[in-house]
Design brief:
Elements: H1 2-6, H2 9-53, H3 57-132, H4 138-212
């Protein structure tokens, strides 16, 4: 069902637009992250200077509030940039996994078809051998031998194709397992980062509440 949904032509037309949008958001997050770093450095130096100069408490609190907001923007933009890249990587891995699963199913069908064809040719070869076993004429024997040689060559060719297809099938199966394992590891890492982000957000909210008080 999901394959039918994602195979709509509309998604392929929107792919270029979404790629451009993704790059635009990446550039925007990088700009916000760099700006937050600049603000943190700026207000950190001002904070130290004002503290050393022993200025009035209102100006000092104002500078401290600016520093806190710049640090909050730094954390938010940094985590947003990182999580956006993680999301992009997750989508890429899921796409690769879907393609590998599709190729896996196609190779499995090809292996089954080759196996059935090989069995069919072997059964025909056995029937021909049984039908021509009692006839000892020289000319018929030569034609029988030629037919058997052709059948043997055909069987060998089918066996070779079957072996080749089986090797490709096992290789695709190994690649699918590797991609699936990588996606599971990435999902666990993403859950861990989300927990850390929630903890950091809670600590920032507590600090902001204290500043308001």
């Amino acid at each position: 069902r999901w394959q039918k949904i994602f195979m709509f032509p509309l998604w392929s037309k929107m792919a270029v637009f979404w790629n451009k949008m993704f790059l635009t958001i990446i550039v925007l997050l990088i700009v916000l992250f760099l700006d937050a770093i600049r603000e943190v450095r700026k207000y950190s130096s001002v904070h130290v200077n004002e503290k050393a100069a022993n200025v009035n408490s209102s100006a000092f609190d104002h500078i401290q509030m600016k520093l806190f907001r710049s640090q909050r923007n730094l954390y938010l933009s940094g985590f947003s940039l990182f999580l956006w890249l993680v999301l992009r990587r997750t989508v890429t891995l899921l796409t690769q996994l879907a393609k590998e699963m599709a190729s896996h199913a196609a190779l499995e069908t090809q292996v089954n078809d080759a196996t059935e064809a090989a069995k069919k040719y072997m059964a025909e070869n056995e029937r021909l051998q049984e039908a021509l076993s009692g006839k000892g004429n020289g000319k018929k024997k030569e034609s029988t031998d030629a037919t058997q040689e052709k059948l043997k060559e055909e069987v060998e060719r089918l066996k070779a194709e079957l072996q080749k297809t089986s090797n490709a099938f096992h290789k695709a199966k190994t690649e699918v397992a590797a991609v699936r394992k990588q996606s599971e590891g990435l999902r666990r890492e993403y859950d861990h980062l989300m927990k850390e982000f929630e903890q950091l957000q809670q600590s920032l909210n507590k600090a902001e509440d204290k500043k308001d008080l």
